[in-house]
Amino acid sequence: MIEPPLVSPDTLSAAYRLLAEAAYRPISGGTDVLVALSGGLGAPPERLLDLWRLDELRGIALDGDALIFGALTTYAEIRRSAVCRDLLPAFVEAAATIGAAQIQNRGTLGGNIANASPAGDMLPVLLATDAVIVAGSVRGERSIPAASFWTGYRQTALAGDEIVVRIRIPLVADRQVRFRKIGTRRAQAISKVVIALSWVSAAPAEPWRSVRLGLGSVAERPIRATATEAFLEGRLPTSDTANTASVRVAAEIEPINDVRSTADYRRAVTGRVLYRLIREAGDW
Amino acid sequence: MTIRPPLGRIAAPVTLRPHLPSSGLVTPSAPFRREGPAKLTGTALYTDDLVFPGAWYGQTIRSTEARARLLGVELDPGFDWTRVVVVTAADIPGANIVNSIQDDQPILAVDEIRHHAEPVALVAAPDRALLREAVAHVALRTSPLQPVFDPLASSQVFAHYDIQTGDVEAALAGAALVVEGEYRVGHQEQLYIENNAMIAVPRDDGGVAVHGSLQCPYYVHKALRRSLLLSDAQAQVIQAETGGGFGGKEEYPSILALHAALLARACARPVRMIYDRHEDIAATTKRHPAIVTYRSGVSADGRLVAQEIEIVMDAGAYCTLSPVVLSRGTLHAGGPYACPNVRIRSRAVATNTPPNGAFRGFGAPQTEFAAEMQVNRIAEALAVSPLELRRRWLYRPGDTTPTGQVLRESVAAEEALERAAEASEFERVRARTAAARTSRVSRGDAADGHLAHGIGLALAWHGAGFTGSGEVHLESVASVELTGDGRIVILVGSTEMGQGTKTIFPQLVAEALGVPMDDVEFAPQDTSIVPDSGPTVASRTAMVVGGLVIGACRRLRAVVEERSGAPFADSYRADAQAHGPTRIDEHFEPYPGVDFDDTTYRGDAYPAFGWASAIAEVDVDLDTGEVAVRSVVAADDVGRVIHPVLAEGQVEGGTLQAVGYATIEEIKLRDGRYLNDRLATYLIPTALDAPRIETILVEAPFSGAPHGAKGIGELPMDVGAPAVVAAIHDATGVWIHDLPASPERILAAMASRDAESQG
Fold it and tell me: What whole-number distance in Å separates Cα of residue B262 and Cα of residue B456?
């Protein structure tokens, strides 16, 4: 295994300065970067910036009407977080599907976001909950909505000297969030399809508002199915709604054949699972 | 019935005499595994744990093309090659051949590359960084050749068989029902927990000692002697602790040992070659993919009257063990059913893909999947329960197989079937799933939820020991020695790879000699110490070698008791003192009345058969096609149980491996290269995917073995996949003809079924 030189700053400002000086590949838990390195997959980075010691980037906090996650929050921490379980159970559900216990202890939310895999399991939930990703650099901080963060295949809106520092998920009254991951096996599988659906409705008889549909593994990046969202906006979760929505979403996505699954399967399953989620919401 | 050491007593070895009747031949008991404490505490030494001061690291330069003319191995003149050693085919003193059935596979490619990841050159260096650097400065100069990937388009046949009995054409023409099918099964990776690994150490006598993770020390021994021109003594093979094999360390370690030994010879130092998982999956052998086409004829009164079967196995680029894998697949292709008119034609062909080899079941899982699919589909066509149909057709004592073998004894198809059916309440569950299916259809929707439950059944036979006259040709030897200092030592070449050899052999010896098991030692699997007991394959160790060990014990006991006039247990220590060491070498003798003609394929293909039934229950998610295998009831006839806990472990492990084969395990290829050659992409079931497994050990002893045992390891592999696929059919109404029965295939089959019913 090629081992690029690694720098481990103790403070965020030191990390920013290093990033401003040279091209580093930031690394937190290393669950993606080290796999690629040891497997000789792709060109190795010239140098690594180890963020693991930056305790400023840890922790889950409730801040008024939002949940704030430090970028170094691990999946294990999300799973253990009582506030997260109470206020955003779908996020806990998603974290529980990632890798094995060892990966969950090392892998971080910020890493999942910056790695920008189209199959990143947390990312559809961030899209469905209007999460805001806060990027930082020597130049200061800026907020990037999740919906505009992933710009292409493994491309992000981050500048070369920026890192993800925290994630802000607004908490919305009467919002429902549903998560579903389809993988090859029941644990430790990279997804074939990931779906996160959210909507706001105070009572079952009320039409859905602020509908968000985040999808993973069905395009070159995590996406929101905005046409399907627009169709669902203002509707009740009826059989007709579910039927049309499932057809719409299948037409809206652009999945591919790859080593894990087929485009046909991904298209069909995205539609069917959306149908199922709407049906369960409508309780019919 | 699951047997477990009672809680609270696990601190001390427990002897269990549970539900098994005492046979008088062998007393089942469940002592802890001999090597268990060392494995549990991390003190067991696997190959990579062995330290040889000054050892270099070796690596293989492999082809990156499926087929090409090899024009040269080019060493960058800008690199300092004096610090490393490089080995090419020109450096091989003897035959550039990996010793096996045919002399076709080179140790290092010359002139032509025939598969992706084929070894072309070797490099060793004193440290890993330099090794990596050196490897980066080696280039292969090639010119592309047209590869063959489709086995049906291959003109190179490694082996073919033709078994005929009766008149199939006439029987099919007169049949009231003919069911046809084509079934395709793919590669499967053994995925032992320890990768292939070998360390070669030069010997003072000019020879080489290799320490490795391997199943068959004498296969490696023979390969080293032949290609390095060594005497018996100069070639020494020592098995390190081995983390699983499943067939994947049957023939592959020969080429790896040759590579390590050639490098050790070149640098005159020990050389370590420890594969990482990626290299292991990319380069080592897999289960043979197969295409099986089947026509079955059923008479108006419901009898199986004809089977016409054609089998094509994809051997990959070299022959390896394909002729014997194909042979076993061919001989088992009819399934455990009496049929008067059978024709089975088979061939193993070359493609430009990595060579396939041994894997638990050895050809039988592929063809028996097809056989069981046929029976289940015929049951559906006849509207008969698949259990009832098997009751009518299964082999009973006195029946004749397609090779003309009369099944005289040890026939337990019926008992395996009935006990599994009873324990799973097959008919009751089946009635329930049928009702649920009907109500789904009548409501035109998955109104009772998106999970559909199904139950499925399979039955199989598995020939015990080597095929045909294989055991006779092996001339296996097993020895037991009473040493001069009064110790009892078992000397066999049979290896422990997790299945229990090191535990059950001392059990057998302790019982045969009437001494405590702790007084019996097991000599290391080192070719300078133990004789060639044949390979540790084909579920033959407990039956064949175990039988030889018991034979040796009986003779030893007679010798000592005659000299002392007292029971062996009371007299052996004094006997050793008085007479010095006594060693008994027991040689294999053909089983009486067992006769097979290798050229005509007529006669007794196996001395006996083991019988297995599996009944699987699944939940299929109708939205996603995902299959959860909830339970498997496995009834396996092993002749006689020696160690119930280890026996159950074999059934449970084999069942889970079969569930993986049935549902998710799949190698995908592009241009002859495995695309998913990593653990991130080649997936096997996790603990969460594992069904509840209920094991029923059936005992129909084989009289040719002194203890009656027939072997167990491969039985569960034959039945798991067809049982799961039958359960998927029961849940969904669709048949999946190709393995794995992936969600993609299930949804596609359901979609085309729905399109047909609407059209």
Answer: 51
For B578, other C-beta atoms within 10 Å of its C-beta total 10
CATH class assigned to B476-587: alpha beta
Task: Answer whether the bond into residue B31 is a cis peptide, omega within 30°.
Answer: no
pLDDT tens per residue across span B682-700: 999 999 999 999 999 999 9
- Parallel, antiparallel, or unpaired: how do β-strands B197-202 and A60-63 relate? unpaired
> Is B751 an 8 Å CB contact of chain A?
yes
Q: Which CATH number fits domain B413-462+607-759: 3.40.50.2000, 3.40.50.1100, 3.30.365.10, 3.40.50.720?
A: 3.30.365.10
Q: Do domains B413-462+607-759 and B476-587 have the same CATH topology?
A: yes
Q: Residues near B36 by Cβ (< 8 Å), separated by ≥ 6?
A: none
Tell whether the model's pLDDT for residue A13 goes beyond 60: yes
Contact A185 B688 (CB under 8 A): yes
Tell me how far the alpha carbon of residue B169 is from its chain's centroid. Answer: 34
> Model confidence at A39, in pLDDT bands (50, 70, 90)?
confident
Q: CA-CA distance, B261 to B267, in Å (whole number)?
A: 10
Average pLDDT on B214-236 reads: 98
Chain B residues close to A189, C-beta within 8 Å: 683
In 3D space, the residue among A86, A99, A250, A251 whose CA is nearest the CA of residue A188 turns out to be A99
Q: Which candidate, B469, B485, B160, places its Cα nearest to that of B325?
A: B160
Instruction: Mention every residue, 6+ apart, whose C-beta is less than 8 A from residue B443.
Output: none
Q: Which chain A residue lies closest to B740 (C-alpha atoms)?
A: A184
For testing contact with chain A, the best of B624, B629, B667, B746 (most A CBs within 10 A): B624
DSSP secondary structure letter of residue B517: G
Per-residue confidence at B649, pLDDT binned at 50, 70, 90?
Answer: very high
Angle CA B573–B27–B424, to nearest 5: 155
CB count, 10 Å around CB of B215?
30
How far out from the chain centre does Cα B393 lie? 27
**DSSP, residue by residue, B438-472:** HHHHHHTS-TT-SEEEEEEEEEEEEE-SSSTTHHH
Give the DSSP letter string of A160-205.
Answer: TT-EEEEEEEE--TTEEEEEEEEESSSSS--EEEEEEEEEE-SSTT
Which secondary-structure segment (H or E) carries A150?
strand A150-152
The pLDDT tens digits of the residues spanning B290-320 come to 999 999 999 999 999 999 999 999 999 999 9
The residues spanned by each domain of chain B are 413-462+607-759, 476-587
Q: Which helix (H) or strand (E) holds A246?
A: helix A239-252
- Residue B521: strand pairing partners: B489
B147 vs B316: CA distance, rounded Å: 12
B671 dihedral zone (left: phi>0; alpha: psi -120 to 50; beta):
left
Nearest CA in chain B to A277: B623
| Nearest-by-CA chain B residue for A273 | B623
> Chain B interface, mutation test: which of A185, A246, A260, most B Cβ atoms within 10 Å?
A185
If you search the block for the tokens 């040891």, which residue do you land on? A38
Query: Does B744 lie at the interface with A, CB-CB under 8 angstroms?
Result: yes
Q: Pick from A186, A260, A265: which is nearest to B689 by CB?
A: A186
Q: Quickly state the pLDDT bin for B443 (edges 50, 70, 90).
A: low
Q: Is B620 on the interface with A (CB under 8 A)?
A: no
Q: Which two tokens stand for residue B368?
A: 């028996």
Whole-number pLDDT of residue B15: 41
| B14, pLDDT greater than 70 | no
Q: Could you read off the pLDDT of B590-604 as tens digits, one per residue?
A: 999 999 999 999 999
Residues of A in contact with B57 (CB under 8 A): none
